[in-house]
Amino acid sequence: MLSSAKQSIVLVLSLVIFGSLAPQVGSRPPDDVTSTLGTLKTLTYSPSVDGKQSDALGYSALREIANACRAYSRGLTALIDYHEPILTRGETGMAVFRKVSPSVVMVVVANFKDDKVTNSGLGTGVIIDPAGYVLTNWHVINGFEGAIVIFKPAVGTEPDKDNAYGVKVVAEDEPADLALLKIVKPPTGLTAVKFGDIYSLQVAADIHIIGHPHGNLWSYSTGVISQIRNNYDWTYEDGSKHNARVIQMQTAINPGNSGGPVLDNNSNMLGLVAMSEEGQNLNYAVAIDVIKNFVNSSLANRPRGAESHVETAKGEIYVGQTKEGLSVTKIVYPDLVSYTVRDAKGLPTELVVETTDGAILTGSRPNAFGGFGEWTFKPKSGKTIFVESAGIAPDLISTEKMD
């Protein structure tokens, strides 16, 4: 379901990390970012004696933030504007759409190679817990290194590109084609879609679907249940094999609908859109009982406590000093170079990163969690990104500099 959508959007993020994304306050001008890096590069460095990793943030955290900002910057111009769908099924359809659409998100995924987006795609997800848990298909996120979710705006017709939220994959069920994501820093006031019951499914009953077919965001379609199929087998183009109880539907399904909710007239979720057989007008969704078992099991086994970053690269460490007496730790990684500036007490005051594709990531205003309260990401070309963070992962990302 994702192959055509990959051509319709070039997108965002870095999986297994980052938090939410939206506007920020008081970032430094981009020219200052370049100037600071230039100054740090002119210092004299010598190899570190102890050889310890001593930058303020580890490699994986830096790469994740840079990848999130880079993909977000590139994806801004590719998001397709949408208009409120024309509803042809009367008051029931309008009521279902208006009630549930705020809980339906756009899932944007991407891969990176040598700091470049090499593959991307778009799918749909649905909020199933106010704590920020998002249900989608396994095939939507499988094989991708990063993902974000974007909510439908409360007003207007264009997605709020400055309000995207980073997610982590917390559970997968490949055979059933289900995946559970967790928004790292979820917004308040999320409304979960209510689950229906497998025993309420009736052949010929009306259903309603919300998704992003071919990148046409938050589109509504309607149809009927054709049949319920037990132990149904299907295979995707990548060769992955799946089996689950599914709902066979007569309705319009296209790439980008994957992960969208199938709803009854009372706005209860009956299934999750999975796939269609092209040319056959046969469309299928994973049934609600399969979803319930997966979600209940996943939430019961969710990890407790903070998650730690796993370092995937070790760098060459050098130390230097500014004219003002500030110490600088320079670490050369395969695809980026980081500079951590510390004061006389050894506390980090600033972190500057240069990636191999010429982007500059700068962290300032250290916070109590070992991260930085403000970040600026300046790509070699494209929009400059401003980030606000209360921890290590980005909380809010924006292309607009706020006063």
Describe the SSE topology.
Blueprint: E1 24-25, H1 30-41, E2 46-47, H2 59-75, H3 91-100, E3 104-113, E4 116-129, E5 133-136, H4 138-141, E6 146-151, E7 164-173, E8 178-183, E9 206-211, E10 219-235, E11 241-250, E12 261-263, E13 269-277, E14 282-287, H5 288-300, E15 316-321, E16 327-332, E17 336-342, E18 348-355, E19 360-366, E20 372-378, E21 385-388, E22 396-398, E23 401-402
Parallel strand pairs: 1-23
Antiparallel strand pairs: 2-15, 3-4, 3-6, 4-5, 5-8, 6-7, 7-8, 9-10, 9-12, 10-11, 11-14, 12-13, 13-14, 15-16, 16-17, 17-18, 18-19, 19-20, 20-21, 21-22
Could you please describe the fold and organization of this structure?
The chain is mainly beta and 403 residues long. Among the domains are: 19-57 and 314-402, Outer Surface Protein A, domain 3; 198-289, Thrombin, subunit H (Beta Barrel). The protein contains five helices and 23 strands. It is elongated. It starts with 23 loop residues before the first strand and ends with a strand.
**CATH architecture assignment name of the domain at 19-57 and 314-402:** Alpha-Beta Complex
Going by helix content, strand content and strand pairing, the class is mainly beta
Rg computed from alpha carbons, rounded to a whole number of angstroms: 23 Å
Q: Which whole number gives the mean pLDDT? A: 76
Helix segment tally:
5
